[in-house]
């Protein structure tokens, strides 16, 4: 955003009433959609939304495996959070940890057969909920506009190619 020529650069550029309403709608909409998706996932599949996020990323990775650091980056989670999540999921045989042959300190997280079955069973209900709560509520024009807007917002974070929102 640009400042007017006579505005003191030390002064905050307060949000207009419309901008504040937009910002607050953004802050309310995202968490409410996420909360509804989380309830659907738990109710229909017996797993948490974070479980599903990990399982989906591993299911889409080559050989259903990823380095821990790459998975943490992809999920935008700190490594401590991911480590605790991995432990819980390993205890339920959803994934496993394998040593990385070329890096003794590194490890891969690998989707197990059980994990693949769980994510495969959970996906249809999840996509139906995403449609109900999000995509089906937008016209094709609105969806296209929102996609372009989100691309613009995400561009500031220099995401690598292939990441959601990356160019």
Strand content: 5-15%
Shape: globular
Arrangement of strands in the largest sheet: 1-3-2
Biggest beta sheet summary: 3 strands, antiparallel
CATH superfamily: Winged helix-like DNA-binding domain superfamily/Winged helix DNA-binding domain
Q: What class would the helix/strand composition place it in?
A: mainly alpha
Protein name: MarR family transcriptional regulator
Pfam family, one: MarR_2
GO molecular function, one term: DNA-binding transcription factor activity
Describe it for me?
The chain is mostly helical. The chain has a single domain, classed as Arc Repressor Mutant, subunit A (Orthogonal Bundle). It contains 6 helices and 3 strands. Strands 1-3-2 form a 3-stranded antiparallel β-sheet. Strand 2 and strand 3 form a beta hairpin. It is globular, with a radius of gyration of 20 Å. The chain starts with 16 loop residues before the first helix and ends in a 12-residue tail after the last helix.
Topology of this protein?
Blueprint: H1 17-45, H2 49-60, E1 65-67, H3 68-75, H4 79-91, E2 95-100, E3 103-111, H5 113-133, H6 140-155
Antiparallel strand pairs: 1-3, 2-3
Helix pairs in contact: 1-5, 2-5
Question: Summarize this, please?
Answer:
The protein has six helices and three strands; from the N terminus they run H-H-E-H-H-E-E-H-H. It is mainly alpha-helical and about 170 residues long. Strand 2 and strand 3 (about 105-110) form a beta hairpin.
């Amino acid at each position: 955003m640009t400042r007017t020529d006579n505005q003191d650069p030390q002064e905050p550029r307060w949000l207009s009433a419309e901008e504040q309403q937009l910002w607050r709608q953004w802050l309310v909409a995202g968490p409410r959609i996420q909360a509804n998706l989380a309830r659907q996932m738990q109710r229909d599949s017996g797993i948490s939304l974070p479980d599903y996020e990990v399982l989906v990323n591993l299911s889409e990775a080559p050989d259903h495996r990823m380095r821990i650091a790459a998975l943490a980056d992809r999920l935008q989670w700190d490594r401590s959070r991911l480590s605790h999540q991995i432990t819980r999921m390993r205890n339920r045989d959803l994934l496993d940890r394998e040593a990385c042959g070329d890096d003794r300190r590194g490890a891969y997280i690998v989707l197990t057969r059980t994990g693949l079955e769980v994510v495969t069973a959970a996906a249809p209900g999840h996509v139906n909920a995403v449609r109900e709560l999000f995509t089906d509520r937008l016209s094709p024009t609105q969806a296209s506009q929102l996609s372009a807007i989100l691309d613009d917002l995400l561009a500031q974070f220099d995401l690598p190619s292939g990441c959601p929102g990356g160019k």
